[in-house]
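ARCHIVE CARD
Drawer: 12
Card no.: 0347
Subject: one protein chain, sequence and derived structure
Cross-reference: see card 0346
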Amino acid sequence: MTLRLLDGIRRFQEHLLEIGVARSVLALPAPRMLALPSPTAEGSEPASVFGRLVTEPEIHDVASDLFVSGHYNVAVAEAYKAVDKFVAERVPGLMQSGTTLMEQVFAPSAPHLKWSPMTSPSQVDEQKGYQRLYAGAMLGIRNPTTHEFGWVDEPELALELIVFAQHLLRKAKIAEPGAGKARAAPAV
């Protein structure tokens, strides 16, 4: 009885989502649906939502305590620094960071990391698009949150930005080595 009821609720949520009425249901590949609580529901506090959505240890470990304690700007900055650090570690020998690193690592002409053989226009577009997303995230999110106080001061915005950082991190984790050549580190 309970399973039928839950299945009926799930199908109803999917229907509401499909017709554009639902606003508090997030479609995910697995599990199929994640029902987010309404802003007034119990368990909808930003910290609780953070704990359910941010699961990558590289980001969770550096941003969780900061986010929960209300240091949203610093939590976002640390999440993007974690992405930057992860990408740099995947491509040893490059001495850049931030925007310059992302532009070089994901360059469609000779990527150090890529997601496809880039034999079709769509595959090349994916590489170009993500190169711009990574570089743009460093320039437009990491840099302001690192260099300015209070750039992000609302929990909802901070959570959105941290979840985007998590997406970039996951995408970097599944990237394959490309043909790009890492330069040797300069002699000290």
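Annotation on reverse: The longest strand covers residues 25-27. Residues 121-147 form the longest helix (27 residues).
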